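Form P-L/3: holo structure prediction, ligand magnesium ion.
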Amino acid sequence: MAETFSFSRWPPSLPEEQISHLTEIAATYALSHGLTYLPVGQQPRFPAAAIHAPLALFPSPIPRDLFQLAQRLQRTYNVLYARIAMDNDFLDQVMGAVEGVGKVDEFVGQLWSGWKQIRDEGVEETLHLGLFRSDYLLHENADSTLGLKQVEFNTISSSFGTLSERVASLHRYLLSATAYYETSPILAIDNFPPNTTTAGLAAGLAAAHGSYNNQSAWILFVVQAGERNVFDQRWLEYELLEKHSIRVIRQTFDDLATSARLDPQTSALRISRGDGPEVEISTVYFRAGYAPTDYPTPGHYQTRFLLERSSAINCPSIPLQLAGGKKVQQVLAQPGVLERFLGDSSKEDLDAIRGSWMGMWGLDLQDEAQKNETVEPLGVRLARERALELVLKPQREGGGNNVYKEAIPKFLDELPVSERKAWIAMELIVPPNGTANYLIRSGGAAVKTEVVSELGIFGWALFGSGKVVKDAEAGWLVRTKGVDSNEGGVATGYSVLDSIVLV
Ligand code: ADP
Ligand code: MG
Ligand code: MG
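OUTPUT (holo model):
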């Protein structure tokens, strides 16, 4: 890190007229380069207008060595999560078997028991694809050095990869288009890392497709009906078509209820379309299916299980989706568990992975005192005592599900005893103080805000039958939120898209 760099003096201060001009050219660039979103209330099938995605005017500072560390860790994380997804015993143990998460969490329970039934029928998943995103925050260590700590590891529907590439281009453009953006020596092109996330993610999907036995098959994107983040998905679709000559079909779970069938002999997945003959599917890419609201009826789960039973490669398969649960992240942090999966890794790699974790425990963690039934489990007592340094997380994705700090004690008072198993406690990461940015939301002026930036590293792995066939690191994104918001998430409205300036 440049010794003179001070997080609390970022970004450079510019006169209001310059910020206003930068805002105008940033918004225009975003709209003309597909850094876009559908506005609220539009019919996705008849889009008539787009707005630009929420943006940060300046890239956010990340120490070069920590960015490189995050990139280096990704290959190990790819293998780790691929192996977890292939370890049925481990997942059964965490999810259910006796009385794990799946028994008390209806949504996780449905996925887990459906997958179990498919296994009992003797159906074997030959290949799985994971498109992953490992999320991090900078963390101020006790000795006030900076480290990198993992927020979570996503195994389903990780979004904003292709838009993030466009934000990186936007920040490069601002640097070259104006004479005054480069007001700090830090704002130099050499400190803007390349972003080729679109190609990286498409390479993963193309690798899965390439291993399927019919190269004229299509890739299926399973999407949500009201999706506003369609351009992020479309950029991936265009990349597959233009660079890999692979066609994509988009369908919702509702569409698939009537359009999807399995070939009775080969279990090949075939989709009928209104506008042409049936197509065979090589790879199913889920941009839906990560939340209970995606499964309003038992029929929706049946559709998911049909896709899982098919010979198409699922991204993710159900076990890979389950592997991405917060409970798995917490169990991994227990002594010896990482070695179960990465026994062949160097001590250095294991230490680096473990060094990226905060303290975590299950709310159902027990101790001796608990034999007296009037005493709460140790996990709950610790969560009460240390509430202000903690976040509680259930097995959910997509933002807005966690419980933070002062809200924890009351939440624990009301949480049914049986549901403790489905929640983990995690120490809060402490990012450097006082960093600001100018946040731009569609149609508005840039608002200077004190912020926290979350780095995501993308990666993919194609794996099955006990082996990782191929994997790669696949790019990055930054989401920046106001410090006053505990949560992140661009789709949920808390964060804006951002890029990196290495310091
Ligand atoms: P989701 O799967 O819903 O995205 P996350 O675990 O990423 O769940 O939590 C959502 C947001 O909450 C994160 O983007 C981050 O802003 C915040 N958060 C989560 N865990 C921590 C933590 N340990 N320390 C600080 N902030 C956290
Ligand atoms: Mg997250
Ligand atoms: Mg997540």
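COMMENT: The chain has a mean pLDDT of 94.
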